[in-house]
Amino acid sequence: MVVTKKIQVSTNGNSEVLDLTPQAVKAVAESGVSAGTATFFVVGSTAAITTTEYEPGLVNHDIKAAFEKIAPKNARYEHEETWHDDNGHSHVCASLLGPSLTVPIVDGKLTLGTWQQIILIDFDTRSRSRQVICQIIGE
């Protein structure tokens, strides 16, 4: 069985981190799949998905600070020269982290650790409406 769900979220951009876990848990529960996988894919090239402990210090500071070291917002990016915009670093950060995450489903539940949540990071420089495709495959 394959079930596809859409999760719609609004973001403020600028490396905002959103916890998608409640929507992900709901999607899996509604799918009726008891054993399989759930893949979460963010549509767009300036956002990414991963897991982390969703706590204020990490999501409000540490993740943003780490990516600022890797791809500084004020550095020179050829992308910005080409398109005359300001989000070259957003594309670099999103590309490094990636647009998707796959989580096993066991006994009808996502196999996340106690302190592990599914997060979306919007690296773009403005607020956005983001769509996350959740595709659940199993039996």
Summarize the structure.
This protein is of the alpha+beta class.
Strand arrangement in the largest pleated sheet: 1-8-3-5-6
Helix content: 25-40%
Count, helices? 4
In total, the number of strands is 8
Element-by-element helix/strand order: EEHEEHHHEEEE
CATH class categorisation: Mainly Beta
State the low-pLDDT regions, or none: none
List keywords for this structure.
single chain; 139 residues; alpha+beta; Jelly Rolls; five-stranded antiparallel β-sheet; three-stranded antiparallel β-sheet; 4 helices
Polypeptide structure, described:
- By secondary structure, the chain is of the alpha+beta class.
- It has a single domain (2-138), classed as YjbQ-like (Jelly Rolls, Sandwich).
- Helix content is 30%, strand content 39%.
- It has four helices and eight strands; from the N terminus they run E-E-H-E-E-H-H-H-E-E-E-E.
- It has helices at 21-31, 56-70, 78-83, 88-97; strands at 2-11, 16-19, 35-42, 47-52, 100-106, 109-110, 117-122, 128-138.
- A five-stranded antiparallel β-sheet has the order 1-8-3-5-6, with helices on one face. It has a three-stranded antiparallel β-sheet with strand order 2-7-4, sandwiched between helices.
- Strand 5 (100-106) and strand 6 (109-110) form a beta hairpin.
- The chain is elongated.
- The model has no long low-confidence stretch (mean pLDDT 97).
